[in-house]
Specification:
The structure is a single chain. By secondary structure, this protein is α+β, with helices and mostly antiparallel strands. The chain has helices at about 25-35, 65-80, 80-85, 90-100, 110-120, 165-175, 210-220, 230-235, 255-260, 295-325, 335-360, 365-375, 390-410, 415-420, 425-440, 470-490; strands spanning about 40-45, 50-60, 105-110, 120-125, 135, 180-190, 195-200, 250, 265-270, 275-280, 385, 445-450, 455-460, 465-470. The two termini are about 40 Å apart.
Amino acid sequence: MGILEPERTDTEPHPRKEPRFDGPLTLESLGRVFEGCVDYMERQVYLHGDRERTVTVCYLLGMTRNERLSDYILRPLAQDPALSRAPEEELFSLLQYGALYNLAANRRTALEDVVNDLILGSCALFFPGRADALTLPVPTEEKRSVGEPENEPALKGVRESFVESIRTNTAMVRRHLKPPELKIREHIVGRRSRTQVDVLYLEGIADPETVERLRRRLDKIDIDGVEAAGNLEEYLVDHLNTPFPTMPYTQRPDRFCQGLLEGRVGLMADGLPFAWMLPGTIDQFFKTGQDRAFHWMTASVLNLVRWFCALVTVLLPGLYIAVVTFHPEAIPVKLALSIVAAKQEVLSEAFEQALEKLCALPEEEYIQLLTGMVLQAVSTGREQLVFSPRDRSRIGKQVVVAANEALVKAVAPELPDSLTDSRVGALLGKVVNSAAAQITGTGLLSLAEETRPIRGGFILVDGPVEVNCSFETLVRLQREKLENQAAELLFEN
């Protein structure tokens, strides 16, 4: 990420509605927000069985843990006698400051705050006649357990990886880095998803300007949801028109903490099992989490090998093309021969594919092609046609008949159309053609009984004379003529 470069100037998005739920904070308003949601629940509770004093508990099924809600919220409300005896003006304070067995209790005066708390796994307490509410977090803890990193395996090091829960990830970072200078700032991104995005840094080590610049860019993001890494990256990088990655990330908490110790700023998003380390430099993409587990000399050699391989990958193709195209005299003889052999193999493959396409022609086109070849190859019109076993049984007779008809038509007298339109005229035409064939001695091609091991085409036999018109022979002859042209098309130079 080029976060140290000047910030890009983006056009302002369409104005967002803040707050999204601007109605009064009442039980009815909350019900309208979650209207049609089967997981929205309301439960009225009598304080110690007193029907005159009630509290309404609101929560979302699946987002709250039922055991915590029942034991720490509902049970004290229903069984604590002090709650029924307390004056109404003191009841809210009692619940907020210790009457309920919960770590946190938040007083809310805005409808949007209550809605967000419910979505995050809290329950809300509404009291009759009050314009505020009390929210208590009782979230579920259903998440994937911490396992080994799949993309960054550890041979010598920590065998744990980030998970989809952002609070689990921040806790793992806290276990690795224990100083209070580790700061974690939360941002909410996404109009609909309301995704938690945390910025982590070590105060006194990280550049404050970099931290503030990243936080400003997060606050400017105006999208509906954050469901993938690209939803954040495209709003944080300086240059979008690049195919190269600019925001390095890791699955390993130890590597992430090492980045924080180097002065980088960390970025986490709820639902994503990895974290970014910013700003990104090209050297980061050539390092692995294993480097610091080895001796500095070993790690340095491995890093140099990676750089060398990258340079070879980038420069070697261009060097090869330059030498082969413009400086062939610099190529060793054995290498030049191997290059020529490779080109010859490519040419052979091209002509082989042409042969296969000829043999795989549709039957109608195949018959037309062979008929035309026969008409060009015959000399007397009395030859025998020899095919492959497959072609003889499939199209042999059709080719012979079509060729004979074409030969006879070329020498037979042309009868008027008025005569040949009738059945008698058509029969007369056949008699005339047969007579012409016998007189001229053409149009008497026949199908040979023997077959030859050829892939396609035919062999024309007239006594001791044979004319090889097989596809293999024709392609070989054409290759001798077209090889140079084909090489120019395939290899340009």
